[in-house]
Automatic annotation (TrEMBL):
Protein known as: DUF1826 domain-containing protein
Organism: Thiohalocapsa halophila
Amino acid sequence: MSATDTALVDGLAASSSPIRAPADAGVHLVHALVDVVAIFTPAVQVCVYRRPSLLRLQAALAQQAQAGALVGFRRVVDAGRPLPPLPLPERAIAAGAAQELGFLVEVFGELLGCPRIGLRLEVLDRAMCPRWHRDHNGIRLLCTWLGPGTQWLDDTASPVTDPALLPADAPPSGRAAPFDLVLLKGGLWQGNAGRGAIHRSPDPAGAARCLVALDALWD
């Protein structure tokens, strides 16, 4: 993790004000890590932290995917502690994959204050969830390393009661770029029953898509 990233994480941990978004903003885009606390604003369902792509890691992942050496995995990790060894390809490790995962886990752990985190690295050649939907969970972090990013729909102007009724080809309001941190609020978040981020997985058109997903674990 760079000195800048470390300072931003420290700032996130020290942040005391959870209200950093307009009261009626369903989707909030931020350019400083400390501002991801906007996800706690009641109306915000999607919060996206824009950041540059890690081109060296992206190139290593693409090479490993082309060689068939990139596989997904699932782990439960302790928040606030170094990550255990993970089944990452050597070239991805050399390109900083482990450090990037450590950064994402640290950010998410500081944000949610959870004791453990469910970590998934998904390697996909098709859309995992191609239709518009809401998740029945709390807050999830998604970060696409390779391939097209998660798409979302801002329904604040015209609220959607059941996203399953939306046509599959309905255009998104926005989509994540590689290495954006995307926070999605689900229907189980306190005060968010019957709501949640409306989103879907993009079609990678047969190419490899590599996605990190983090979920807070409390039990």
